[in-house]
Amino acid sequence: MASYILKRVAGSILILLLIMVVTFFLMNAVPGSPFLTEKSTPEQIANANAKYGLDKPLYIQLWNYIRNYLKGDLGVSLKMQEGTPVKDIIFHQGKFLLSIKLGLYALLLAIIVGIPLGCLAAYFRGSWLDGALRVITTVGVAIPGFVLAALLLIAFSVKLNIFPTKSGNLPDFKSYVLPVVSLSSYYTCYIAKLMRTSMLDAINQDYIRTARAKGVKTGGIILKHALRNSLIPVITYLGPVTAGIITGSFVIESTFSIPGLGKYFVQCVTSRDYPVIMATTVVLSALVIVMMLVVDIVYKIVDPRITLTAKED
Amino acid sequence: MEENKTLLKIEDLKVSFFTPAGEVKAVDGISYTLGYNEVMGIVGESGSGKSVEAYSVIGLLQNPGKVIGGSIEFEGEDLLAFTPEQMRQFRGNKVSMIFQNPMTCLNPVYTIGDQLTEVLNCHDNDISKKEAKERAIEMLKLVGINNPEKRMKQYPHELSGGMRQRAMIAMALICSPKLLIADEPTTALDVTIQAQILELMKDLQKKENTSIIFITHNLGVVAEICDRVSVMYAGRIVEQGKVNDIFYNPQHPYTQKLLASIPRLDEETTERLVPIEGTPIDLLNPPQGCNFGPRCSECMKICLRKKPPFAEVGDGHISACWLHFKDMIDKKEAEKDE
What's the whole-model pTM score? Predict the structure, then answer.
């Protein structure tokens, strides 16, 4: 296991390098400059470019990025907060933490609500409960998060005045509710649907009949024998979900005025703040890579038939 | 010895499946008794209701299947009157079951040891972890699994098919049940492993004094292990008797044809096998008369009109066929003519 994790980490560094190269060429392919404003003269732009090394050939700029990243230096912001080290912006101003918190809570909600709902629907298949859940989950999958966010805002903030319209830095529980719910609704519903299907599949397996023949209680049959087997497809899905939920939160962050990384990411792209674009991309990619690794390891724990390395056989 | 007392008594059991297309009478009034320490074979082709009948004994019938008539008595207790919780206590404890495909019947994500001790934990709340583990290891040894301590920690996919069926048998017998229902336990195994498993079951049956209901479509297996045999066709028992009577003196046309259709080692190799003509009946629309009537070469008029009653053709040997009443019918016809 340890050697597997080490190998994966080594591989991850390569992937991150590749991501840096691609991001670098993509952001340079976009026309415009961080220093371009209505008032700026060509001389001013040339000066600024020279100051930050943007006048050098691209391959040298790329090499500088890579060299600095290897030293742990993420550069300074060119525009958004001119001169501030990017590391400070991401890690010390709480942006990263804010997005991570939002994403992880949404993910947690999706898992702890989606999985039981799916189990219930499967266990009571064909009943009114199953029917109701099918309608709810289908609607949940069909409605985009930002539409739901707007609807929730109108209902719970404007009309009922229970939750704040602006969640800001997420100071209290109330400020979490609406963003987390709107961010997780799609995933909750999708996991519930997935869980229902795989649970139904598991319930009809031969080993469930064996468990019943052994005299295992109904609860044990569902929670012990069927659940663990039916979790496998859900865990597979959780890999990409984790990525999506944590990196894709910028729409929700904008809607609820949360100054998180997601929102900042979009802003830095529109203002061509190259070092910030690079740093956020790399940090979020690293996060996704770590989550994928976690999912793979959980996968192995849940299903002993899965071997992580070819050697284990 | 309790050998002659009755362990299981099934009387006029009827099981139907209520499907959108109509009622399928999977088991249509079967009766038999099973003594302590006895091995009863139930033979029949696919869809003859042999598994359904066994499932109703152990209470594993799934929707839309339902017992609609008759009684099942186990040591004098009416199983059909049991509450679901009583039935759960009963399963795995007093009666247990092994199935056809050992590859899919063990849960792939739990170790063999975990699945074995689970049976004990389900039926005995006081048993300690250590005791349960010791008992499980003892059972694995009993079914001939070598290195049981290591196997306890292994997952089903790490064991071969024969080994898994042995583990299934160990699991079924761990609570020392009085009755073991074996639903085609050797069908999915290759022939050498089949022989080993049969040998093991015979051996264990003697050691543990368990009665066995052995469901199979393999007549060779029946001859190997059973004391008595019930031959089923389309939800009914057509012939029942001691294993030798059934093999050497079959009375029902279906049994006779069944035996004629299997290859024999002691006959000329050029001999052609005789298949049974026709196809099994549609249980949605069973015939009015004998279920085998439409395929029977000796079918008479009465066979198509009325279901045949059982005739006692030997000691404990019964057969449901109008042919046994032929003299009586002829006599009646003659009387009518006069």
Answer: 0.81
